Every structure is written in structure tokens, then in C-alpha cells.
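Final report, results section. Input specification for complex C-07:
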Amino acid sequence: MQITDTLARPSAARIPWLTIGVWGGLAILVLVAYVRAPQATTAVLTSTIRQSTPIILGALAGIMCERSGVINIGIEGMMLICAFLGFLFNVWTGDLILATMGALLVGAAVGAFHALMSITLKVDQIIAGTVINILAVGLTGYFYQQGLTTRGKFSPVSIPVLADIPIIGPVFFSNPPITYASLILIVVIHVLLFRTAWGLRTRAVGEHPAAADTVGIAVNRVRYINVIIGGMLAGLAGAFLTLESVGSFERNMTNGRGFVSLAVMIFGKWTPFGAWGGSLLFGFANAMQSQIQFLKNQLPSWLAWIGDLPPQFIGMLPYVLTIAVLAGFVGRARPPAAIGKVYEKE
Amino acid sequence: MTAKPEVVLEARNITKRFPGVVANENVSLKLHRGEVLALLGENGAGKTTLMNILYGLYHQDSGEVLIRGEPVRISSPSESIKRGIGMVHQHFMLVPVFTVAENIILGAETGRGPFLDLNVARQRIRELSQRYHLDVDPDAYVKDLSVGQQQRVEIIKALYRNADILILDEPTAVLTPQETEELFAIIRTLTARGASVIFISHKLKEVLAIADQIMVLRRGRVVGETTPREATERSLAEMMVGRSVMLEVEKGEAHPGAPVLTLENVTVLDDRGQQVVNGVSLEVHAGEILGIAGVQGNGQTELVEAITGLRPVHSGRVRINGRDVTNASPRRISETGCAHVPEDRQEDGLVLTYTVADNLVLNTYYAPPFAHGIVRDERAILDHANRLIERYDVRTPSALTLVSALSGGNKQKVIIARELSREGRLLIAAQPTRGIDVGSIEFIHHQIIAERDRGAAVLLVSAELDEIMALSDRIAVMYHGRIATTLPAASATREELGLLMAGAQPSNAAQEPVTDGRAVVNVQRRGV
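Structure output:
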């Protein structure tokens, strides 16, 4: 019953020895690595955070939707549409903040569209999400013109003093704004879900909508709002890609990140911090992949064989890891009970 | 009593139609302060519809509702809550993965700004628990509570919202007799403190025990109003059904023969992999009815599924007529002459989108005379259907009507007809009369006894203690996946069975002096 306990109350009073052990072990590993190769370690960790940002934002989007009982497999498409339009807003206005706002608004609109299909029109929610994914690829591909240029992307903002701490400074306190926002949002959404009345209602609607209805909670309204918030989070993930990470748009640039987000959400048992753990894992695998290609020649002799592997194999690393982790954990995860079911009174 | 207390809730000429049916027609009721009004009627008589209108889940087509003399229009549950109406639904409206406190405050959250503060809530819950003797731990998870405890949470949930008019919809359906006694004590405390209660039920004994006023509904109309002092079980049953009914089932002596079904140390796992049947051994003989009593969810469902091949037997042996059928396919088990009336007729008993005729050959469609090779013989299937419809009194427009269009009682008769017409040697009937009309119940009871008298072995599983006591020759009580003991039906008493259903040990149950409700309750607490 451990699992459902964590679901209902992630911060139960008992001491999470397993979590402490895992993180403690990781911290020691990082320290050892840092002593041996400071630059490479910092680079890998910084890259881990960057790579995990769109994943955790996507996972938070999924958590908001699914905790309220609406399946959202359209996160990939939502990200892509928002990445594209965020990029266009940047091209037109030249203002990154305005462009980000635009991406958020578009995300809200796509979220509202998903809510309309899944809640009001009672379309099968998997189909509704697939519609969004297909639309996103088609529309962005059709309207994308080569050669559009922008005046750049968000650059890192160092926080004074904190940024000077070794390892932690460069990894956590020298990031661009959307990365900071994603870190703050993990905490905000955790508190929202588990410490506020709104969160209690959201979870009730996702678990037992009839119970919520009989105490006067407007089930579909709660779902609409959560799906729209989810859309905005997916929008922010899209904005991260074009306005902070790459600075321009490429066809199908989300490259499966929306789906990885969903995997990570399940891995994290629909909790923000759990999902963050999963995102970091994926981000780390991604970072290793690029670093290994970088550092081929500096590998210690006993790891030299890694440098000889075809790069495609190393490129697979994050996805293989995702599959392995999901296969190992997903069987024990329990989704919200009313997920995917339209609520109808009798 | 000279002056009646004030009328707190009144309904005048409520009419509500659903497509094709009139659920309520000109229904009026008056509920006085401090009174228990029992609403009696069969399933589908319109009791729940009426309550859902009072609670704001439905709207009446015509008629008006007055609360404390003031006409109101209740358009949503939050409005009825605001006016002091609380409802305990038949299927509890609790989130299993939330704590008691979280469930109670849901929708009426306490805290600073948007943040929850459960301490204030815990405090009030404790006060209410003490005041009304409703013992629950605010921090327990609802999924870990017994059904009786969950019901208490529902009542506190209503009281927490300052409800003084409580609607209890079939509150005793899932309780043991002792838990029912406890509930009645709670209801008496509530009314003594000025609350008014509407008690919905189809159980005559309970209505007579708890009500001050009784109103009987039949087919959406009020067919009678009375008090427990003027009414008897018989008069109430006649009002409810509209004709005189046999409350007792007539049956002769059993003539048990050789064992037909033998279970040896059977264990079964549920869907989550938990062991829910823990080493059950029993024998059912030809020509006898063995009843399995027990509160729902004590492993009966899984046991029946395991015997009939719908769920793997984890360990142990199942034999029918001496042949080992442990983990055999359902078809093989059925071909040994095992008839199965499943618990969930909509889900497991019938294919709702098939015709009555096709449903009547679901277990024999592949064999002659209904099929020749791979070709169905429509003529034979139709003839067979018409014969059974006649013989088992299935009320259907035709054999080619979709079975989904039939009433609950007639659906069940289709299953009974299909299963019994094969004249097998074993009948397994799970909840054979759940939620169907009294007429069909009588008919099905007679059929089950006829099966026994024909020489079949009958395993009857039912949550209705009355049914078990009326039909069985021997009674086994199932609790937490075990069968503590098997008693001869002739000497078993309700009290004794009730204690066993609550987990008391057989020796205990016999020794305990059961004099009044209080003593029974204490024993039951110890047992749990």
C-alpha cells in the first residue's frame, strides 16, 4: 500500500530512507566525479538540468490534466505548436517576454481545445490527444518558412553569490529564466496539488467525480481549468525549446519529448517531485550522450571502448533508459481512478 | 402527542419523467422535526429519484419543494447542503485514497486563504464523533475502513455541513445485522438531537424497527402511508408489490445424496494479487442447498469465479462429480453439468446487445441441435427460446428482442432459464435476486428449490441474510476469505449468523449471551 499512500500524501511523516539513500549516493558520486574531472562534471550536470527542463514542464502539464481525470497524450503536439508560435511571435515582435506570453496563451487555447473535445464533446481522450499531435505536426510543418531569423534567445542570468558555489552554483543558479521557472513550478504545483483546497478538489475529481459532485464541486469546471493550466505548462515547454534552448524552429523539433514527459509522469507516480526525478534521469542520459561524444579521447582506458561505439548507439541511451525505467516501475504505478472517463450524472 | 412538531421538509405533487418512464408521479411527502420517515418500495419504484430531486441532483418536471415552510428551488447539491439537507448515498461518495478528514472537508475546505488546514477540521470531526457516538479516526484512509465505518464517515460528512435533514439511501444494504443495530442507535441519537431522517429501504423488518412514519411507493406513485404501529410486514409487502405475497418460501425436507461439488483448501487471489479466499474446504451434496452468507467483499465473488473457471485457483482442488476441474476452462466446467448464475448479470450473465434467443443459447450454441458444424440452426434456437420464455415466464415482447430492453427481473429470468433448462447436477447461484422485483424473487426462489428437489446440488451465495435463511439447508458463513463453520439452517439464528459474519469465532458466538442490541454490538467490536 506504499504506492497509494505516496499518491495521496507524498510528504507523509515517515522518513523516506530509500529516497535519502539514493540521493545521498548520487551526491557522493557527483563529488567523486567532480574531484576527478571538474569541468566535465559541471558540464554534464548543467546540461542535465537544461535537457530535463522541457521534460519536467511537459510532465507537470500531464500531472495537472491527469490528476483531474483527463488523459492528455497531446502534450507532444501542444509543445510543438507553442514552440512554433512562440518562435513566430519572437520573429514578429522581437521581444522574448512577449513571445513567451504568446506561447502560454496558445498553450491555454490548445488546452481548452483538448478540454472541449474530451469533456464537452466526449471524444475518446486518447483520440483527442492524437488529433492534437497530428494537427501539430501538420500545421507547423505547413506554415514553417525557412530563413526566418530572430534577435536571439534567453540568456542565462546568474544569481549573485549563489552562482559562485562550486557545482551547485553553475548548475542551479546560472540558468536562463524558463529553467528557473520550471524549478519553481515543481514546488508550486506540488503545493497546489497537496496543500490547497483547489488541489484537494482536483484530486477528488480525478479519483471519484461523483463524490465531488455530491458535495457541490463543479466537476467539469475543475477539469477544464486544470486542462487549460496543463496546456499552458506544455506551452512553456514549447517556448523553452525555441526561445531559450535553440533560438529557432525546426520541423518536429519536440522529437518525442512530450511522450517522454508522459513516461516520466508515470514514473513519478503523478507527483511533481517524482516526475522531476524521472526528468533528471532522462536529462542526465541525454547529457552523457553529448558529453561522451565530446570527450571520446579523454576517457580512461577501461572505458575507451565507449568511444568506439557508433554514435547512434550512444544517441539511443536516453530512450533506452526511459524504456528500462518504465518497464521496471510502471507496473506498480496507480493512475487516478477516474482517468479517461467522462463524468455524466446517471 | 397532541401537536405535531414543525414540518421541516415537504414535497408537493412532484412529477419526474425520464424518457419512456414516469419515475415519480404526483408524489407528496412531509417530514417533521425529529422524525424518521421511511420510504419503502421495490427497486425502480422511484425512491432514489425522489431523493435525488430533494438533493438537487435532478429537477422535477412539476411540483414544489418546501423547506421549513418556504418554497425553494434546489438546483444543485451545494444549494441543498446550504439549506441543511445531507444525503448518504447507497454507493458511498468517498474518495478511497483520501483520509477521513480530507473526505469530510472536501468542498467545504478549512484553511488560511487557499491553503488547507486540516487541524480545524480534525477538531470539529472529533467533536461530532463524540456528540453523536460516531467513532472514526480522522487520519485513517477511507480505503482501510470497513463499510460500516465508511457509512459513519458519510454521516459525519453531512453533519459537518450542519445538515439537520438526513437522507439515507438503502443504508443497510451492505451492513451486518449488528452494524445495522449500531446504525439504528446512531439514527436515534440524531433524531433525539433534533435532526430529521428520511430512511429509504426495501427491507420490511428494518422499516418497522426504525420508522415513525412509513410511506410506500410503487411505480412512482405513493400507494400508502402508515405507521409501524398500524402496519405489519405482510401489509407493507402487499402495498409495496400491489398484491398478496408469500413472505416465506415453502420447501420440504432435503434429501442429500452424494457430494457433487468438493472444494479442498482453495485459495484465490483478487485482481491486485491479494489472497482473498484463504483455504476454503466444503462439500455440496446432491439434493441440498448450501448457502454462503457473508458481508459483500469477503471473498465470495472470487470463490465463485474460481469454481466456475473465471479466475485462477491459486492453490487447492476443485472437484465436480469426483472429476478434478481445478483451473479447467469455463466451458469444460459448464459441460460437467455446472450451471452458473453470476453475481453481475449485466456484465457476466448476459450479452446485452444480443437478443433474448441468442442469450438463451450462450452456453450451448456450438453444439447440436443449435449448430450443425459451423452453421447455426436459427429455427432450433428460436424454438428453444420460445419454449423457455413460456416455461420461465420471461416477460419480453419477443424472442428476438434485445435482452438489454428487459427489466432486471426478466433479465435474471433469462439467465435462470438458460442455466436451469440444461438440468445439470450443480447450480451455483450468486446473488440470484439482487435488485429485482418481489414477483421475480418469488419465482426464482421456487426454481432454486425445484432444482434441489430434482436432485441437483445448489451453492447459493447471497448478501441477503433473509434469502440465505429461507432457502438453505446448510449455511456457511464467509469472513475474510475463510469459512469458520457450517451450520444446519434449521437451528441457525440471525444473531448467530450476524456474529459470524462480523468475524466472531463459532464457539464465542454460541457462548455469548445475546440478550439485546447492545451486547451484540460489543461482541461484534471485539470480533473485528
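Residues 259-337+424-492 of chain B form a domain with the Rossmann fold fold (CATH 3.40.50.300). The longest strand of chain B covers residues 7-18. This concludes the modelling results for the funded period.
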